């Protein structure tokens, strides 16, 4: 290593690599922990920073994204930072209009309705150049992190992005998107290919900008049964990993571990464990010991405390963490929640969760 404390890309040298070691399946002295949506509305300082701007303007401001990414790290000894952004910047970069409606969530005024609507999407190869603001945010955050912990980049998986583009927002059934899968299978595959072609350079661009790990969010896996999942989600999830890794290598960049989080995708655990990702994220509906049996020794698991467990007392959180760590075992494991933090959660309880993971995982290793 260079002696000036700067790493290979001119970033400050990493001081805490526990998260990365666990992701690569190496032994760690304690269990690393981070939380999905750790930069979020449960923090009063997040609400303060966000108050002045609309959601996507915030996403487009590298300075704001950097500040929001760092806020949870000032409060808690988390083992990783995840860049503040949104999965829907990709459909936006493809030319779709997306707004964030307060209290309602994302909204696409003109969702995809017909096959011919695919013609209004931009060339996926141009998407990365539209998303320079994300790369700038990553580079700025890497510098400001000063090597404290690794920085995670992320994107939504093709099927999950497709659901938003067709539904025009959140949906409890995904009936419109699934209608496409049954009635327009060719157009569905065409759209999923467009999204994959956009995601690959976007994720590689995040690594080039300084991301030290990548998480792919297949948030809507649970709306597909095994057959639809194997046909319309899994092939693209695999393709993203394979192509990103090849491109990262071609670009002469150091390899980064990749995490796949398919919420409610428990029916595809074995397939996900063999999809080319170092880490498989689990939601809270999966029993850790059963998951470990099913995925074998080749991948690291991440998860999976029920986020609502943070409503419990700090003592109870400690007990639940203890049980979770016992079930997952000490190695090849990254502690997290089984989904993102909710806006009404108490930051003190998030702190109790993080501290309990650190404390108990060190004890586990002594015994």
Automatic annotation (TrEMBL):
Q: Which gene encodes it?
A: UROD
Question: Any keyword Transmembrane?
Answer: no
Residues spanning the membrane: none
Q: Spell out the GO cellular component terms annotated for this protein, sorted alphabetically and separated by semicolons.
A: cytosol
State the organism named in the record: Canis lupus dingo (dingo)
Q: Would the keyword Cytoplasm turn up in this protein's UniProt record?
A: yes
Q: What is this protein called?
A: Uroporphyrinogen decarboxylase
* InterPro entries noted in UniProt: UROD/MetE-like_sf, Uroporphyrinogen_deCO2ase_HemE, Uroporphyrinogen_deCOase
Where found, per UniProt? Cytoplasm, Cytosol
Query: Whom does it interact with, and what assembly results?
Result: Homodimer.
């Amino acid at each position: 290593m260079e002696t000036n404390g700067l790493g290979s890309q001119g970033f400050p040298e990493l001081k805490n690599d526990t998260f990365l070691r666990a992701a690569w399946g190496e032994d760690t002295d304690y269990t690393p922990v981070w939380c999905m949506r750790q930069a979020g509305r449960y923090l009063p300082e997040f609400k303060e920073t966000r108050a002045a701007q609309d959601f996507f303007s915030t996403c487009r401001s590298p300075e704001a994204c950097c500040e929001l990414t760092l806020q949870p790290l000032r409060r808690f000894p988390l083992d990783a930072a995840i860049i503040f952004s949104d999965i829907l910047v990709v459909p936006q970069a493809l030319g779709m209009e997306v707004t964030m409606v307060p209290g309602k969530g994302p909204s696409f005024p003109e969702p995809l309705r017909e096959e011919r609507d695919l013609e209004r999407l931009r060339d996926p190869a141009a998407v990365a150049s539209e998303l320079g603001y994300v790369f700038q945010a990553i580079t700025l955050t890497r510098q400001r992190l000063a090597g404290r912990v690794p920085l995670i980049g992320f994107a939504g998986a093709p099927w999950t992005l497709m659901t938003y583009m067709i539904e025009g927002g959140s949906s409890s059934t995904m009936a419109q998107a699934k209608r496409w899968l049954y009635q327009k299978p060719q157009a569905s595959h065409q759209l999923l290919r467009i999204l994959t072609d956009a995601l690959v350079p976007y994720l590689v661009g995040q690594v080039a900008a300084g991301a030290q790990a990548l998480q792919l969010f297949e948030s809507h896996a649970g709306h597909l049964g095994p057959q639809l999942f194997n046909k319309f989600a899994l092939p693209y999830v695999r393709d993203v990993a394979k192509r990103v890794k090849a491109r990262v290598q071609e670009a002469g960049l150091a390899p980064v571990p990749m995490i796949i989080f398919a919420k409610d995708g428990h029916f595809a655990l074995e397939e996900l464990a063999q999809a080319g990702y170092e880490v498989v994220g689990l939601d809270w509906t999966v029993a850790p010991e059963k998951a470990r049996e099913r995925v074998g020794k080749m991948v690291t698991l991440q998860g999976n405390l029920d986020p609502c467990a943070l409503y419990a007392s700090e003592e109870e959180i400690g007990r639940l963490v203890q049980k979770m760590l016992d079930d997952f075992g000490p190695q090849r494991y990254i502690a997290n929640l089984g989904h993102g933090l909710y806006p009404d959660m108490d930051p003190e309880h998030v702190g109790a969760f993080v501290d309990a993971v650190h404390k108990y995982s060190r004890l586990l290793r002594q015994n």
